[in-house]
Hints:
The protein is of the alpha/beta class. It is 43% helix and 17% strand. Helix 2 links the parallel strand 2 and strand 3. Bound molecules: nicotinamide-adenine-dinucleotide and thymidine-5'-diphospho-beta-D-xylose.
Amino acid sequence: MKIVVTGGAGFIGGNFIHYYLKAHPEDRVICIDKLTYAGNLSTLAPVMNNDKFRFVKADICDRETVFALFEEEQPDAVINFAAESHVDRSIEDPEVFLRTNILGTATLMDACRVFGNVRYHQVSTDEVYGDLPLNRPDLLFTENTPIHTSSPYSSSKAGADLLVQAYNRTYGLPVTISRCSNNYGPYHFPEKLIPLMIVNCLYDKPLPVYGEGLNVRDWLYVEDHCKAIDLIVRKGRIGEVYNVGGHNEMRNIDIVKLIIRELGKSEDLITYVTDRKGHDLRYAIDPTKIHEELGWLPETCFEEGIKKTIKWYLENRSWWEEIINGEYQHYYEKMYNNR
Length: 339
Ligand code: NAD
Ligand code: TDX
C-alpha cells in the first residue's frame, strides 16, 4: 500500500509514521507537512533515510501542489493529521484554523476524488462533541452524541467532519473518521498541558493551572491512537465514525501533581491562572464501537504511559530545548505573562 500522511512532522502524525513504518515495512509513506510552528523535522529524523519514506514540505490548502503530488504518487489512502491543533491559539486567532482545518480537508478530499476515489481517513477529535458535566460520570460521548462545539478549534474540526461525511454521501468518497480523546507521549509540543508541565518542572518554573484545575480530560497514550487509526483504515466500515479512548479520565490538577511527584519537585510551583475562555469541563469517550467492531483496546495504561513520556522528555532534551528557545518564547510570554 502507498499512503499519504499529512501533518507527519507534528505530534500524533510523527508517532503514526514511526509506528506505521515498523508495522508495515512493505508499505510506502509520503508525508505532506507545511512545517508550521508545530511541525518539527527532527521528529522525523529517524526515518528520513528510510527508502520507503518521502517527506514533502507543502501546505494541504495548496491545491496545485497537492494535486501534482497525487498525480505523481497515485496513493491508495490518505490519513489527514494536518491541522492547527491548539485551543488557546484558536481563541487568539481563529482564521488559520478555518483555513487549514476546513479548506485543507476539502483540498485533500478533492484530490482523492480526482485521482481514483482514494480511501480517505480524517483524524478528528472528541472536542467536536462539546463537553460533559462534572457531576454526571455516567455520561460518555458516543458516535451518536450531537456535535456541539465550544472553541474556534473544535468548531473548525466539526466543520471538517461534516464536510467529510458530505463527500461520502454526495460523491461516494470512501471515508472514515476517528474521534479520539486527549493524547500524550513522545514528541508532544510543549504548549500542551502534559509536556508544558514537564518542561516547566524541569526549569523550576511556575506551573500555570487554568481556573481551579478541576476540568477533566480522558488521556490515551499516543501509540494506542496510532494503532486504532491503522485498524480503521484497513478494516473500518466506509462512511463510519469511530470514537477512540481508553476510559482514563483525570482532573488537570491531579495530572500536574503526578508530574511534580515523578520529577521530585515541589507543589509550590503550582500557580492558578485565569481560566481559558469557554473552557470545556469534561471529556469522556465511549469506545465500545471500535472495540466490538474492530477488536481495538488500549495497551498502555496511564501509570506506565506517563512514566515512559517523562523518561522520553528527560532523554530528549535537545528536541524540546530547540523548540522552547525559538518562537515559543514569544508565545509563552503573550499567553502566560500577567495571566
Ligand atoms: P500538532 O499541532 O502537533 O501537529 C500538526 C501538524 O500539522 C504539524 O506538523 C504542522 O506543521 C502540520 N500542519 C499544520 N497546518 C498545515 C497545513 N496547512 N498544511 C500541511 N501541514 C500543516 O497536532 P497533533 O496534536 O499531532 O494533532 C494531529 C491531529 O489529531 C489534528 O488533526 C488534531 O485535531 C487531532 N487530535 C489531536 C489530539 C491531541 O490530543 N493532540 C486528540 C484528538 C485529535
Ligand atoms: O497551561 C495550561 N494549563 C492548563 O490548565 C494548558 C496548556 C492547559 N491547561 C488545561 C486546559 C485543559 O483543560 O489542561 C487541559 C488540557 O489542555 P490542552 O493540553 O491544551 O488540551 P485540550 O484543550 O484538552 O485539547 C487537546 O485534546 C483534544 C488537543 O490540544 C486537541 O488538539 C485535541 O483535539
